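[Q] Does anyone have a clean structure-token version of this?
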Amino acid sequence: MRVLENVPLAPYTTFGIGGPARWFVEAHHEDEVVEAVRFAREHATPLFVLGGGSNLLVSDEGFPGLILHILLKGIEQNGRNFSVAAGEEWDAFVTTAVSQNYAGVECLAGIPGSVGGTPVQNVGAYGQEVSSTIRCVRAFDCEQNRFVALGRDDCHFGYRRSIFNTQARGRYIVTRVEYDLIPDGYPTVSYKDLKQYFEDWTTMPSLGQVSAAVREIRHRKGMLLVAGEPDAKSAGSFFKNPIITPDHFEQIVVQTGGANVPGYPTEGGQIKIPAAWLLEQTGFHKGHVHGRAGISSRHSLALINRNGASAGEIIALRDRIVAAVEQKFGIRLEPEPVWVG
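[A] Here you go.
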């Protein structure tokens, strides 16, 4: 295992923001994960696991501990079960599954990052979540100092949540994820944008056509990170869609004069309200500029690094948005990206 010192983290994130890591290790094999954990313990230093860097905002001061960059590779297939190493690129795996006509992840195309991050955030988009396909997660248990296999129920999946980012945050290091996909299955076309995209079609689209449509829609909204494009330096959706009570939702309807407030029923009788709509209603529109930070010109939910923004500038814009939405609607928005440092 090679330990580097004072490695700048900005190049490892899609935001392109962040100071250096005190120590930095790349893990190409599981034994290097174990060595990294041992190193962090011996030096009494915090450890942070870095994957594709697509859901992070790193402090301008950097990280005072050890960054473990997961680069484990390999895909093993046994029928409908795909066992995928945590360092594999997520979108590439989606392409692989779809090309073999396996359904279950076709709507998750175009999402940046690595496979290891998908169970952590319970990645979801356009009517699908990975929790519906995950069969097992292999991870190193830093408390028990051994590798364990966690089944779907063990992961306690919820909306953008799992055991890995809630009650057991920092305990497990994901090294492999097993997905149970559907051979020759039908694509999921339940999300509003996809229904509109295919509304004039007289035949059922293929899995490949649905994945292509998702990528096109994401690109149109500035949610497909393409190097060189103006809105490319972001972490995608910066805020989670809040879930509120029906009474709270009705209060907002009354408050807005009976406007067509978007809301979607969730489990437990709650209602999910789009964070993008809340931002627009409080004056934070597409293309909003806040110094070197701003909001994407194509999607009001994506905060962007316009031109050399610092983490502090992104945080300042975040705080202004959170305060405005809470003051107007009584909803405290929860950021999606993980803060490092």
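[Q] Thanks! Anything notable?
[A] The CA atoms of residues 15 and 233 lie 5 Å apart.
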